[in-house]
Every structure is written in structure tokens, then in C-alpha cells.
Design a protein that fits this description.
The chain is 9% helix and 40% strand. It is mostly beta strands. The protein folds into 2 domains: 49 residues, no CATH class; 183 residues.
Length: 242
């Protein structure tokens, strides 16, 4: 009777030790700028390479679809934090953040505050059987405010203090000083925030929070309501990380 090792050789399959060694070599060969098609785990696992986030362009969340057409999120409310899942597939260096305002608030001096959170890494379950895993956690940066008493693409330039984002899941946040603001966006075709009572997901959630407040860490004790609309809201990619 053939031994398992001999059977594998007869079938043209390298013994496991040889196959694993070659996988490791291929993973090292494909490693570029600190990223790889293969995860740095044992065993090496093939993971997809995302084509987005090319330097010299703005990028909204890759989860958002602007089909069949753009829409305006009418009457964006005040004193409410909205967060939008923002997965980054490879390390980037961002130098600007922008959002497109489609309808002014009508109140002189009204503003919109923008911030960024990283995601919870702890998968520990609570007594209620839920987990914070993947939800907003630490405040990465408060970018400041843009005017909402006029329309157009509003940009915050932080080129003097660029932001390096390793590949990971992040959450973009908005908090509005006055209501009746319209923001250009689209319906989400994919989501990352799940529902507990039905098979559906969303691109983020919102909760009541006084304007100008960015809790650190993010306050997950408040009631969260899922939303399925994305926005023209994202980073300018200055360069890729080393």
C-alpha cells in the first residue's frame, strides 16, 4: 500500500511541507510596499487586492453605489452623529477630506463637523450576546468644520499634518449644527452594519449627540439606528504608505 506521502507524489501533488514552503516563498515574492496578496498568517491565506485608493483622487466609501442616480439626503438633522463605514484596502496617506453640500441650511453660520474613528478589535461577547467588534472605537482625528449655509464641495485641507491610515476598517463621522441641510449621496449597495432581527445590512448608523461633541472612545451605550444611504464624503489620497 502506498504511503500518504507517496500517493501525493504519484498524483503530482507536492508533499504538504513542500507545498507550504512554496506558498510562503510566493507570499514573500508578492509583498509590495508592506502589503501582500497573502496574509501574514500560518497557513498563508490568499486575500483579494482592492483596486481603489489611487493617489491623486478623492474616494467615498467603497460600500456606496451611486446607481441608478445620485440623490440628495434631504433635511440632514442637527445634533446627531452619523457614522459611515469606510474600509481602507491598503495603507494610504490622506491630505484632505471633503463632502458635497447640495442644499444650504438657511441659517447663517451653520456648520458641519467631520471626524474619523477606528474600529473595535475585541470580539468579546457581552452578557446580552452582542459584541462591539467592528463598531467605532477610538477617535483618530477631529478634522474640524465646514460651512453648510452655502452649497458646493467643502474641503478641509490638512496637508501640513497628513494622516496615514493602515489597511483596516474605519468610520467617518458627521455632526450637524443646524437642520435642513441637503447632502449629495446615493443608496448603499453593500453594508457592514448588520441588523439583529432580519437578514439585511446597512452602511452605518446614527445616534443623538450634541453638536460639537466627538466622544473618545465612541459612546456605544446610546441607541443606534441603522441607515442605508451613503454620501459624497471621503478622503483625498495623497500617496500610498511605505
Amino acid at each position: 500500500m502506498l504511503t500518504p506521502k507517496f500517493k501525493a507524489t504519484k498524483l503530482g501533488i507536492a508533499p504538504r511541507s513542500q507545498s507550504y514552503q512554496r506558498s510562503a516563498e510566493v507570499a514573500d515574492e508578492l509583498n509590495v510596499r508592506g502589503t501582500s496578496f497573502f496574509s501574514k498568517t500560518d497557513p498563508k491565506i490568499l486575500t483579494p487586492c482592492h483596486p481603489l485608493f489611487v493617489p491623486g483622487y478623492y474616494y467615498a466609501s467603497p460600500l456606496i453605489s451611486f446607481s441608478p442616480s445620485d440623490l440628495s439626503w434631504d433635511d440632514f438633522p442637527a445634533d446627531t452623529i452619523y457614522v459611515f463605514a469606510y474600509p481602507v484596502p491598503r495603507q494610504i496617506v490622506a491630505s484632505k477630506i471633503a463632502i458635497e453640500i447640495g442644499g444650504a441650511s438657511g441659517t447663517a453660520g451653520s456648520t458641519l463637523s467631520m471626524a474619523l474613528y477606528d474600529a473595535f478589535k475585541d470580539y468579546t461577547m457581552s452578557e446580552q450576546g452582542t459584541t462591539k467588534y467592528g463598531l467605532p472605537h477610538n477617535l483618530v482625528r477631529n478634522f474640524g468644520t465646514v460651512a453648510t449655509d452655502s452649497t458646493g464641495v467643502k474641503v478641509i485641507d490638512f496637508s501640513d499634518n497628513k494622516l496615514t491610515l493602515p489597511a483596516d476598517l474605519y468610520w467617518l463621522g458627521l455632526n450637524n449644527s443646524h437642520g435642513l441641510v441637503d447632502i449629495i449621496g446615493g443608496k448603499a449597495s453593500m453594508g457592514i452594519y448588520g441588523y439583529s432581527d432580519r437578514p439585511i445590512n446597512a452602511s452605518g448608523f446614527y445616534q443623538s449627540t450634541i453638536y460639537g461633541t466627538w466622544p473618545n472612545p465612541f459612546d456605544l451605550s446610546l441607541t443606534r439606528t441603522a441607515h442605508k444611504i451613503g454620501l459624497r464624503f471621503g478622503f483625498w489620497v495623497y500617496s500610498l504608505g511605505e
